[in-house]
């Protein structure tokens, strides 16, 4: 049996996933700035208000705390709201509503009040964005018990995962790698959600033997390119697409590291207290005797996101990832001989 | 509208008008508009309101005592706000949904909260109290103003469903400065959400007098958002009842959101951890005592011949029983088990958390094994 797939962009795949969710469950409602008539500044919700009405695809006033806060109230009434935060850097006004309200209500109410809230966040840089338009704020939310966070890296995952996030009874931050919105891929629009890999499961993107390279969201394609380049030099990298940022799928990563003995983690977000730190610590705890080298992090620096013409110095790219790979393999690298 | 009474200093200049149906001396003031909302309030009902107010005052005092005796970690007294909470609380229908703050003991009483529900959180036994869907009342909110957005969202959802229910949110004068509160008014107005904002202006936000929050009466603010607003004597249970009923009727009929500023006074400390003598002139409290909400209704009952000895005995007995019930419920709360801390963080399994729970249970089991071996 062959499954017919459709060629579409990452952005179109999210749109298709949202449409499915709206069709399937009358309690699903989208709310955000400019998502209705305009279809969102990235057109991710294009055409949905026209087809589902202004009460299901809601153009909201310009207030992030209220977008999330009213969605929390809707959850009390059994709705499954999907909030769009226009850009990563604009999520901070909603911080309290996410961290003190949505994240805690299930716990506070001893499971009586469910918070099936999804917050879509176009995130990350690499496209020459203006100030506050290129941030990677995920670590703030990984540190918050009660929240889940995911980031798809390809159109098929985007289509399935957005539906899984909406179906999940916990609040889920859905980080969309906005510089990949135009990447095209094959999407199985008939994909069976129940048969799809669970939301919290990482995926081995490319098997390999010599080191494990972990990425998520926008850097998965970069990691794959790095693995291809490394292969040319005879180095076999196992690339893991985390998919879930909270909880982290330590099982998949640990199994890989037990095979390869080496771990490189890459993300755009700054380093201190970041996802890479948590993953390195958790894997070191679980795999200490398998490790041939300390885990290596290749991340954005601990700086405010820089202006567009400087961002290439901040963002991990293929060469910086390969330099990290050299480090974890004990090959000559930019820090060879350096002791800090 | 009513022949306005004269309000105390509050949210700006003194003497701002408000709706008053019962003077501080307990004299009933006729009001052509609001009286119709009290048509069913006969002698029995008046006595019922009085008994409610005395009971919640007694519960409040007992909880304060429990804190002083080390049975509660903290308590936020509502002393002085009985009329605002009972008057508005008794105006609600069971199917209405309430999003309260932490000081709304009287409202919780009206919704049917059990004694244990009123103290569980303050004893530290549970992260929230009542079943929100039994009382149709969300867990109390400590983040100032956050619940106003939840109420607005709930009301939006109800409206989208075509339901004819009202949502009510309670908050203080301090909360009106919060962004969430102002965003809630914007959203409520834009979507014409069926929500009633009920502000208990008790003159203080911990140590900050209301003039720090508002240079004009708080009730002047909502009209700028396009929200109909009333300013009522919050120590007059009849004014609070009538104004809330009237506003709820508007809200339910689809006329959009409403706002009530109930002008009242926090007669006690902010919480049992607070010392108001550091910031408050004691004369102010004495002044407000002359406007006490409970005494006021008592005086009116007296003048109506409804305050006989038998009734007063009955009220006293009910209050005593409530105090005893609260104390008993408080001190007999079961101690929570250690591993319960891991429950309900997520709605389903969570590998990282389960590993932590497993490790901690092994750690605890180590103690048990050691004790068993002894
Ligand atoms: C966001 C936030 N900031 C500060 C506090 C600390 N705090 C608790 S109660 C309070 C005063 C609130 O005053 P008001 O809104 O008038 O309510 P009242 O306590 O008088 O009932 C403050 C500052 C808090 N709980 N939440
Ligand atoms: Mg106050």
TrEMBL record, chain B:
Q: Name one Pfam family in it.
A: E1_dh
What CDD domains does the entry give?
Answer: TPP_E1_PDC_ADC_BCADC
Top-level taxon of the source organism:
Bacteria
| One GO BP annotation of this record | branched-chain amino acid catabolic process
Q: Which GO terms describe its molecular function?
A: magnesium ion binding; oxidoreductase activity, acting on the aldehyde or oxo group of donors, disulfide as acceptor
Q: Where is the Dehydrogenase E1 component domain?
A: 53-321
Q: Which cofactor does it need?
A: thiamine diphosphate
Keywords (A to Z) from UniProt: Oxidoreductase, Pyruvate, Thiamine pyrophosphate
Q: Which protein, by its recorded name, is this?
A: Pyruvate dehydrogenase (Acetyl-transferring) E1 component subunit alpha
Q: Which organism is it from?
A: Arthrobacter mobilis
């Amino acid at each position: 049996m062959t499954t017919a797939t459709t060629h579409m962009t990452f952005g179109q795949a999210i749109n298709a996933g949202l449409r499915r969710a709206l069709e399937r469950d009358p309690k699903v409602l989208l709310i955000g700035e400019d998502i209705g008539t305009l279809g969102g500044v990235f057109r991710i919700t294009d055409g949905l208000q026209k087809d589902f009405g202004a009460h299901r695809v809601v153009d909201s006033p310009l207030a992030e705390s209220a977008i999330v806060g009213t969605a929390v109230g809707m959850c009390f009434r059994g709705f499954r709201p999907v909030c769009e935060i226009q850009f990563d850097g604009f999520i901070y006004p909603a911080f309290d509503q996410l961290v003190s309200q949505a994240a805690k209500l299930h716990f506070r109410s001893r499971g009586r009040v469910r918070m099936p809230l999804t917050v879509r966040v176009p995130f990350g840089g690499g496209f020459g964005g203006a100030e506050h338009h290129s941030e990677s704020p995920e670590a703030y939310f990984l540190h918050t018990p009660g929240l889940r966070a995911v980031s798809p890296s390809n159109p098929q995952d985007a289509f399935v995962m957005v539906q899984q996030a909406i179906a999940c009874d916990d609040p889920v931050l859905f980080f969309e790698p906005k510089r990949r919105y135009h990447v095209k891929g094959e999407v199985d629009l008939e994909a069976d959600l129940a048969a799809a890999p669970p939301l919290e499961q990482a995926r081995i993107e490319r098997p390999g033997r010599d080191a494990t390279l972990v990425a998520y969201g926008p850097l998965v394609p970069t990691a794959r390119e790095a693995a291809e380049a490394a292969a040319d030099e005879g180095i076999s990298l196992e690339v893991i697409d985390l998919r879930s940022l909270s909880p982290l799928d330590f099982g998949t990563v640990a199994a890989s590291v037990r095979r390869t003995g080496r771990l490189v983690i890459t993300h755009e977000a700054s380093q201190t207290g970041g996802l890479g730190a948590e993953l390195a610590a958790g894997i070191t705890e679980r795999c200490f005797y398998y490790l041939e080298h300390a885990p290596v992090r290749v991340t954005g620096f601990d700086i405010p996101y820089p202006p567009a013409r400087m961002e290439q110095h901040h963002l991990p790219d293929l060469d910086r990832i390969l330099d990290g790979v050299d480090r974890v393999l004990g090959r000559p690298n930019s820090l060879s001989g350096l002791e800090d | 509208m009513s022949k306005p009474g004269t309000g105390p200093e509050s949210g700006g200049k003194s003497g701002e008008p408000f709706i008053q149906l019962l003077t501080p001396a307990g004299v009933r003031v006729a009001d052509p508009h609001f009286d119709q909302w009290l048509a069913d309030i006969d002698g029995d009902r008046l006595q019922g309101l009085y008994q409610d107010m005395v009971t919640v005052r007694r519960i409040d005092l007992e909880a304060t005592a429990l804190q002083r005796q080390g049975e509660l970690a903290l308590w936020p007294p509502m002393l002085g706000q009985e009329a605002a909470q009972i008057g508005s609380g008794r105006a609600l229908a069971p199917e209405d949904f309430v999003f309260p703050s932490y000081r709304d003991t009287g409202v919780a009483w009206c919704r049917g909260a059990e004694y244990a529900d009123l103290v569980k959180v303050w004893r530290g036994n549970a992260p929230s109290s009542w079943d929100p869907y039994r009382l149709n009342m969300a867990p109390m909110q400590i983040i100032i103003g956050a619940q106003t957005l939840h109420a607005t969202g709930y009301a939006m959802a109800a409206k989208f469903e075509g339901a004819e229910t009202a949502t009510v949110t309670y908050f203080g004068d301090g909360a009106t400065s919060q962004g969430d509160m102002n965003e809630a008014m914007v959203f409520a107005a834009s979507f014409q959400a069926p929500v009633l904002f009920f502000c208990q202006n008790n003159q203080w936000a911990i140590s900050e007098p209301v003039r720090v929050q508002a240079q004009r009466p708080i009730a002047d603010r909502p009209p700028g958002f396009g929200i109909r607003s009333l300013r009522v004597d919050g120590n007059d249970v009849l004014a609070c009842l009538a104004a809330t009923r009237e506003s709820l009727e508007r809200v339910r009929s689809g006329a959009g959101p409403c706002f009530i500023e109930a002008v009242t006074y926090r007669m006690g400390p902010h919480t049992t951890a607070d010392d108001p003598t550091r910031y408050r002139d004691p004369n102010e409290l004495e002044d407000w005592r002359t406007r006490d909400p409970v005494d006021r209704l008592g005086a009116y009952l007296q003048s109506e011949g409804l305050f006989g000895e038998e009734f007063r005995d009955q009220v006293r007995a009910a209050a005593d029983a409530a105090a005893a019930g609260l104390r008993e419920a408080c001190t007999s709360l079961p101690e929570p088990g250690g591993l319960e801390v891991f429950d309900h963080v997520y709605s389903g399994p969570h590998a990282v958390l389960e590993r932590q729970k497993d490790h901690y249970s092994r750690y605890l089991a180590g103690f048990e094994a050691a004790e068993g071996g002894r």
